[in-house]
Amino acid sequence: MSDSTSIPNSAQAFSMEDFENALQEYDYEFSRGQKIQGTVVQVTSDGAYVDIGGKSPAFVPTNEAALGFVNNLEAILPVGETREFLIIREQDSEGQVTLSIRQLALDQAWADIKEMAETGKSTQVRVTGANKGGVTGEVFGLRAFIPRSHLQQRDNLESLVGQLLTATFLEVNQENRKLVLSQRDAMRAVAMNTIREGALMAGKIVNIKPYGVFVDLEGATGLLHIKEISGSRVESMNTIFEVGQEIKVVIKQIDEYQNRMSLSIKALEEYPGENIEKLDQVMANAEERWQKAQSSVKETAPEASQPEADAESEA
């Protein structure tokens, strides 16, 4: 008869144990920190089971399915969906590994934040808490902190909870999970991009020093030096100004490298000492005064140029 009916003895001896050993040779090597593709095969109240080609399905605990609180696991990991996971625990005695989506999202969040910090971009921070040192919030699901000194509002910090603040990055340290931001720097950057030299702007006095006053201009702070207040000598700053006072100033100079602004109100005077005697009246029609001062400078510029040059040469 034909030899086709004969079966080799080696095939007849291939047992179930041999079969399992053969499968073991082709089994995947799973290690912690490894990214792997898998398909969701079952969702329970504790987590989801995922087929990654191993001896048994891998497991995703509910708290590892997303960055935030998971309310509906099936909406995040529907059965049949194939996606990338990160192995956070290697195989147990039954060959099951533990997977995470949250850790993948965290790594991506830190990468995005580092790129934003390097390019000087700002971000939105939802304030979730406040303490004596500042406020806490979330950026891309990560816990962030804004020190009190880097907030625009430094009193009654509890009122900031729930608000959305624009901030830039001061410190980004993934190893220590440290994320520090500045609302003040973000506001200053925006303001510095919109402010131009020679403009008359309204601001608020935020600090008074013997040599001048600091004025907040929509987030950017400039110095109104004592010599730029009046054509007459100013004996005391506190007799003219007070913190919180509204004032209109001329942007005299912007130093982008030092991030500084020099301000002036001296040109608004009709006579030396007017700002000292009746500043409120000067501020009431500051726009008209500044237009008049600019027109006067344009008209006298050609005649004034030669004496000014001579004065510089004499100095």
Structure characterization notes:
Helix content is 28%, strand content 32%. The protein is α+β, with helices and mostly antiparallel strands. The protein has three domains: 15-100, OB fold (Dihydrolipoamide Acetyltransferase, E2P) (Beta Barrel), CATH 2.40.50; 106-184, Beta Barrel (OB fold (Dihydrolipoamide Acetyltransferase, E2P)); 195-297, OB fold (Dihydrolipoamide Acetyltransferase, E2P). The chain has a five-stranded antiparallel beta sheet. A five-stranded antiparallel beta sheet has the order 8-7-6-9-10. It is rod-shaped. The termini are far apart. Residues 1-12 and 303-315 have low confidence and may be disordered.
What's a quick, concise take on this entry?
This protein is α+β, with helices and mostly antiparallel strands and 315 residues long. Helices cover 28% and strands 32% of the residues. A hairpin with a 6-residue loop joins strand 2 and strand 3 (58-61).
Give the secondary structure arrangement, pairings included.
Layout (H helix, E strand, L loop, with lengths): L8 H4 L3 H10 L9 E9 L3 E5 L6 E4 L11 H4 L5 E8 L8 E3 L1 H18 L3 E9 L2 E6 L2 E6 L16 E10 L4 E5 H12 L5 E10 L2 E6 L2 E6 L20 E10 L4 E5 L9 H4 L1 H6 L1 H29 L1
Parallel strand pairs: 13-15
Antiparallel strand pairs: 1-2, 1-4, 2-3, 4-5, 6-7, 6-9, 7-8, 9-10, 11-12, 11-14, 12-13, 14-15
Shape: rod-shaped
**Radius of gyration from CA coordinates:** 35 Å
Tell me the number of strands: 15
What's the arrangement of strands in the largest beta sheet? Answer: 3-2-1-4-5
What's the name of the CATH homologous superfamily of the largest domain? Nucleic acid-binding proteins
**Helix/strand order, N-terminal first:** HHEEEHEEHEEEEEHEEEEEHHH
Instruction: Report the major sheet.
Output: 5 strands, antiparallel
- Note the gap between the termini: 125 Å
> Would you identify the CATH architecture of the largest domain?
Beta Barrel
Query: What percentage of the residues does DSSP assign to strands (E)?
Result: 25-35%
Number of domains: 3
Give start-end ranges of low-pLDDT stretches. Answer: 1-12, 303-315
Indicate the mean pLDDT: 84
Assign the structural class, choosing from mainly alpha, mainly beta, alpha/beta, alpha+beta, or little secondary structure.
alpha+beta
- Classified by CATH, the class of the largest domain is Mainly Beta
CATH fold field value of the largest domain: OB fold (Dihydrolipoamide Acetyltransferase, E2P)
Count of helix runs: 8
